[in-house]
Amino acid sequence: MLSAFPWLAAASLASGVVSLGFMRYLWPYRDRLGGRFFLATIGCEALWSLSYGLALFVFDPALREAFEVPIWTAINFIGVFFLAFALEYTGRGHLLRSKAMGSVVALQVLHTLLVVTNPLHRIAWSDYAVEPTYGLATVVYAHQPWLFVNAAGFILMIAVASFLLADTVFSYGPLYRTQAAAIAVSPIFPGVPFLLWLAEVGATPPLNLTPLLFPVHLAFDMYAFFSRDMFEMVPAARRVADRAAIDNLGSAVVIVDSGRRIIECNDEAGRLLGTARSDALGRRLETHLDDVDLDGDNEPITRRRAGGKRTYAVATSPLTDATGAAVGDTIVFQDITEERRREQRLAVLNRVLRHNLRNDLNVVSGYLEMAEARVDDEDVRRMLDVAAENTAGVVELGEKARYIERALDAGVDDPDPVELRPLLEEITEGLSETEPDAGGRSETEPAAEITVDVDDDVTVRAAPSLLEAVFENLLENAIEHDPSETPTVTVRTAEDEAEPGFLAVEVADDGPGIPEHELAVLDETGETALEHGSGLGLWIVTWGVDSLGGAVDFEVGASGTNVVLRLPTASETAGSRGDGVAERDNP
Question: What is the domain range of residue 202?
Answer without folding.
Answer: 7-237
